[in-house]
Design brief:
The protein has 300 residues and is an all-beta fold. The chain is built from no helices and 28 strands.
Length: 300
């Protein structure tokens, strides 16, 4: 694994500047940004979890026993959760020391942690949503209408938003009650939520960005110039970073106007947007993870 700093590079198209990069020896499966601490969690196809500090310095790594199917970290960086292909749930400290392990009823599809690491939600292939506390004790579990492939906690409220890979988005409280549900005719690639739950964004392959509130109000669709596969939000929800099946990144304002575009070497495996929306992290399938800085916005 290597880390490199990129001092004073020439700005990329649209005012996007690469500022740092790291290389992971194996293909990247996903990333998660601890937005308050600024650390980055990445996981690869060889079952390694990698932790990087702000700007790319390596903090540590650990290999688990089976293929990592999903992972995440708390916004404050206090805890990390990862799920394995045989239904394992691992709970790590910020030093990647294992604190506890639990077995789930099915293969985990998605996992999310609340901002301060007090609760973890896991959706499995049998359509069960598990909610555990930080000691690994079950708070509740419930059966959902379809298996949920994407999960997020609403930072300012004890709520979870989950969606299937096709046609379903719903909100839940920590007691396991379904608060709302909506159906949509679209394949869903990811879900993101801002700090107060005023904006929930689904990356829909054929529909651009479909937007809701965490209370279930449909805010309509934001068109994107190509099918949307991945999306991330700034903390206030005013900016959205998205990418589709091509190698282009788009930074959009709330109205859907393109503020930046940036061409990658190949389609991204995962993306993250900094809390202020002024920086992003992109993971490429070949193991390269790149930090991007948005210098000057396009006008006109």
């Amino acid at each position: 694994m290597s880390v490199s700093s990129l001092p004073s590079p020439a700005p990329a198209r649209g005012g996007v500047t690469p500022t740092w990069s790291v290389t992971i020896p194996s293909s990247v499966r996903g990333i998660c940004l601890a937005r308050e601490k600024g650390w980055l969690l990445a996981w690869d196809e060889q079952s390694w979890l990698h932790l990087f500090g702000r700007g790319g310095p390596r903090q540590g790594d650990v290999q688990v026993k089976t293929q990592v199917t999903a992972a995440c970290c708390a916004d404050d960086g206090s805890v990390i959760a990862a799920c394995g292909s045989r239904g394992e749930l691992w709970w790590f400290g910020p030093d990647l020391a294992l604190r506890w392990e639990r077995a789930l009823s099915g293969r985990a599809l998605a996992v999310a942690i609340d901002p301060f690491g007090q609760y973890v939600a896991i959706a499995d292939s049998r359509g069960t949503l598990h909610i555990l506390d930080s000691r690994g004790e079950t708070v509740t579990k419930l059966q959902t209408a379809r298996p949920l492939h994407h999960l997020v906690f609403v930072p300012a409220a004890p709520q979870i938003v989950g969606c299937s890979d096709y046609g379903l988005v719903a909100g839940f409280d920590l007691a396991g009650r379904e608060l709302w549900r909506d159906g949509l005719v679209a394949h869903i690639g990811s879900v993101a939520v801002n700090e107060d739950g005023g904006r929930v964004v689904l990356a829909c392959f054929s529909e651009g960005l479909q937007c809701y509130t965490a209370a279930g109000k449909n805010l309509g669709r934001v068109p994107v110039s190509e099918p949307c596969r991945l999306a991330a939000l700034s903390f206030d929800g005013e900016l959205a970073l998205c990418t589709g099946l091509s190698s282009h990144l788009f930074l959009l304002d709330r109205a859907g106007r393109v503020l930046y575009t940036h061409a990658l070497d190949r389609p991204a495996a995962a993306i993250a947007l900094g809390p202020l929306g002024d920086a992003a992290i992109v993971a490429l399938p070949d193991g390269h993870v790149i930090g991007l800085d948005f210098r000057t916005r396009q006008t006109g």
